[in-house]
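Supplementary Methods S3. Complex input for the 1-deoxymannojirimycin-bound model.
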Amino acid sequence: MILMESNKLRWGLCYAIFISLTLSSLVRDLGVSAEGVNPREAKQLRDEVREMFYHAFDGYMNNAFPLDELRPLSCQGEDTLGGYALTLIDSLDTLALLGDRERFTSSVQWIGKNLQFNINKTVSVFETTIRVLGGLLSAHLIASDYATGMRIPSYDNELLVLAEDLARRMLPAFDTPTVAFFFFLFLFQITSTAGGGTLTLEFGVLSRLTNDPVFEQVAKNAVRGLWARRSTLDLVGAHINVFTGEWTQKDAGIGTSIDSFYEYLLKAYILFGDEEYLYIFQEAYGSAMHHLHKDPWYVEVNMDSGAIVWPVFNSLQAFWPGLQVLAGDVDPAIRTHTAFFSVWKRYGFTPEGFNLATLSVQYGQKSYPLRPELIESTYWLYKATRDPRYLDAGRDFVASLQYGAKCPCGYCHITDVELHKQEDHMESFFLAETVKYLWLLFDLAVDSDNLVDNGPYKYIFSTEGHLLPLTPQISLAREHCSYFGGYCPRNATKFEQSNDDHQVPEIELGHHSNIYPYHESFPVTGLIKGLCPRLSHAQKYGLSYVLPEKTEREDVKRPKPVITSRSIVLVSDQTVEKRPQEEGFTSESEPIMSISGGGSSSDQTGQELTLLESETDDKRVYSS
Ligand code: DMJ
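Predicted complex, serialized as structure tokens:
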């Protein structure tokens, strides 16, 4: 047994050295750009991205609307979600961002008059929330507000009414016969962690706009339910059975099936000022950086043992550096972006999976379905650092899309990044996110004169790229740790302790006038617990979370809270816990690495829900 373990250890160490040597040369070889983008070229590129948007948007409107999505090769349409003119809804706030008052107005008016949800449909709760609900809410917030410069005079809350109607139809997905044990339910037994943990922004905004707390509550309980089932390593798995609470897929990672769970923890805190999300984010982020981060890459590990199961980069991981910028952890974000971008440079696109052991495209994961994540992170890093290398990366993205993906009526998925073969499909997120982040990147370099970077509010992007403003109606937070989230650079902060628990203490950011002026290597000093005044959530409220009952690992000797019937419990004695970052990270302390093949990299498996209109009363009947 001991011999086996030491053999494994030897192999693990060899493998680690191999990985670090080969990958660093890959990054070195492929991460360099030719001549930098100058201001004139940035303007041209911004205009080119605008044309890209209209090539695809007009292609959709002329050939597919009112169906959900465009088939850009054959110039036809298809219903892919629920038959709700999905691409139009997903495009609304991009139209507003581009300043296209005419098309924004006519689109909002068409949707207000024609869209209805009283049709029997089977839909994905996750996709419907992030694409349709999020699209309606962001457009409502723009169309109803003078300050955005895009207010529609005749607008009478039509999109908000639709959003509320849609969300109410989804509410039964959160009912559960085991409510005391588990706070949420989806009618399909298995949900991805991202599927259950990516509803808080849209449902929270809706609650604050309608003054009905139910939406916010159910979404928050879903997060609590997931977090309550975390492993002793503070990791969550990829899929969970919502009836039994058992993880059906125990691979923990930052990409496929989990990604936006992390994203929404931090963003929900920033948008709503709700410290519970920050507390969970800090725990989850700290653990991810400890167990999943193999600088500059991220791997998937078994959530219980921490052993590597997937040494694979998957394209959904590429949002992470952007999230790290939002959290104020910029240095590792820069390194990881360079690594991820090296994959793009190698193929001209990022494949869904890239094997870090063989340094080749992961079998069965060759496609690039026009995903935005790497571009999103590029925008955030440019915003944080103003390093021109990110504009150079932007130019590469444009070139790849123009030469490889452009097709007669829009932009095509790439089925194989090595062969650059096109497929007749264009996901709505191409217009909601991919083009939006590209345009924002170059606009930032030109004049930043847009709603997001120079608008009346600070905005949070939903995971679908929809703009959610920190207005007083939505955000209880004042200018607290917003753009530095839960990870504040210590020397850029000033804490004002307040006796009033409800008052959010203010933090002064080192670079206040512009959110992110030039990057000077943020001296990130570790997790700041709770609010920036260094009070942990637990210290402040005496709250902790139920953990699954299981034998504690020898090496995880953290005090566990008392279990009660609810997903939060009171604990009297809270000691400040030492986080993994503070403990230091050495490769010697890593678990033995193992490699396994096969598997899939599908996107979040949206739990499905059939919406049936009841004949007899106002109560809707839902079946899967
Ligand atoms: C989008 O629908 C969202 O960004 C989601 O969070 C992940 N998948 C796609 C983009 O790749």
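The two ends are 48 Å apart (CA to CA). Residues 130, 260, 371-373, 429, 433, 463-464, 603 surround 1-deoxymannojirimycin (CB under 6 Å).
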